[in-house]
Recover the amino acids of this structure.
């Protein structure tokens, strides 16, 4: 559902990045800000291929690779229509690309990948990740992921993303050399920030809660849809029994035989049509699943803000503690119970020289702490500005995409019902002519 028209929209990390690193990210882009890669390059995942090879521990395995094709838009516009550049990528390489984008751009709701194994499926569809039908659906999902990233105003201009599309050999090494893995936050660190932050931003808290609720709603919707699809499949296939009975009946009737046989043919065609219908339904289900997975990306941005806020609060708290120590040293009074106070009472007061040295050390630490608080404040303000801008872009995209998907799904269901009515009208005409 990525928009490839004139109004491109990116469909739908890490604040350890310093301002200079963030600036370097901007300098590392392919072109000027505001121009997306999708305006300059056609991108597609043309086909999937099953291969057999040995994994990292020399065990034989079967896996799927996907053919990425790219072609310059300018060449197509001029009528040259050149042969597209192509390379093969495994699903794990798509995962590596997305993990890199998550860490490098923590303020962005990074587009999700299609599911690794099928969920919420009707009984005829296999959940095997090597099943041809599932592989084809995943191929479409991977293409959609690339189009989402290529149409995003920031992600599309990342050098590693461009290399992913154009450089088959050495790409992994280039990504690992960026050091993005060392900048990734641990789950424990993020969880600690969630529970200990004192002044959470209300907007991000509400957005995180919204993500949880929307994920729950979409999950329920997909489960209901899978149950309905199962029942619908059964109803359609039972019509095949009508076809068989009418055909057998026509064999023993002279005057009614033609009408019964024609009605049987209509019923057989009706029963067979359910496979195509549910395949089309699966397409709409995949569009909903995309936003099911998008919610985790949205919550990741909110968690990153909590971590940013928590680090700011810890830095400010440490600064207050240092200033209190300075005051205690300067006045010789201890306001709160401490091991240092007990030591002074037991072994005597420090000499003026010792106190002066400690005061100088504290002064240096306080100056550094004040500078660190300023830096943390700037980082948090910058993160909030960038993150909220991307969240608003994502919200507009989400509203548009889900509206389009649900309307298309309703139209499909109406059309399916009309076809059912037409089948019975045809059967009725066959019966009337007997």
């Amino acid at each position: 559902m990525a928009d490839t028209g004139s109004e491109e929209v990116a469909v739908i990390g890490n604040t350890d990045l310093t301002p200079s690193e963030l600036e370097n990210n901007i300098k590392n882009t392919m072109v000027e800000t505001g121009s997306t890669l999708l305006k300059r390059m056609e991108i597609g995942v043309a086909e999937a291929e099953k291969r057999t090879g040995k994994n990292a521990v020399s065990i034989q395995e079967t896996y799927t690779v996907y053919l990425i094709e790219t072609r310059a838009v300018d060449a197509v516009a001029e009528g040259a229509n050149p042969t597209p550049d192509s390379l093969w990528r495994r699903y794990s390489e798509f995962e590596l690309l997305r993990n890199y984008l998550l860490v490098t751009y923590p303020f962005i709701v990074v587009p999700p990948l299609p599911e690794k194994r099928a969920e919420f499926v009707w009984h005829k569809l296999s959940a095997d990740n090597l099943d041809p039908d599932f592989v084809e659906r995943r191929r479409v999902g991977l293409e959609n992921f690339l189009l989402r990233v290529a149409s995003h105003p920031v992600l599309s201009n990342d050098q590693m993303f461009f290399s992913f599309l154009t450089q088959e050999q050495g790409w992994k090494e280039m990504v690992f050399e960026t050091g993005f893995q060392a900048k990734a936050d641990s789950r424990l660190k993020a969880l600690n920030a969630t529970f200990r932050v004192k002044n959470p931003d209300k907007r991000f808290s509400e957005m995180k809660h919204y993500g949880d609720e929307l994920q729950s709603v979409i999950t329920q919707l997909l489960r209901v849809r899978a149950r309905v699809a199962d029942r619908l499949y059964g109803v359609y296939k039972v019509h095949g029994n009508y076809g068989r009975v009418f055909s057998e009946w026509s064999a023993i009737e002279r005057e009614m035989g033609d009408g019964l046989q024609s009605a049987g043919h209509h019923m057989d065609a009706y029963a067979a049509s359910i496979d195509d219908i549910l395949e089309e339904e699966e397409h709409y289900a995949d569009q909903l699943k995309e936003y099911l997975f998008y919610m985790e990306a949205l919550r990741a941005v909110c968690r990153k803000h909590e971590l940013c806020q928590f680090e700011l609060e810890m830095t400010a708290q440490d600064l207050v503690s240092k200033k209190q120590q300075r005051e205690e040293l300067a006045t010789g009074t201890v306001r709160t119970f401490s091991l240092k106070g007990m030591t002074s009472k037991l072994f005597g007061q420090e000499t003026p020289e010792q106190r002066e040295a400690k005061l100088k050390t504290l002064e240096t630490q306080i100056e550094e702490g004040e500078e660190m608080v300023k830096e943390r404040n700037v980082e948090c303000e910058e993160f909030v500005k960038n993150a909220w801008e991307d969240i608003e872009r994502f919200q507009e995209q989400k509203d548009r995409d889900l509206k389009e998907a649900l309307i298309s799904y309703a139209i499909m269901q109406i059309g399916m019902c009309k076809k059912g009515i037409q089948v019975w009208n045809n059967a009725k005409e066959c019966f009337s002519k007997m």
Q: What stands out?
A: The CA atoms of residues 87 and 167 lie 8 Å apart.
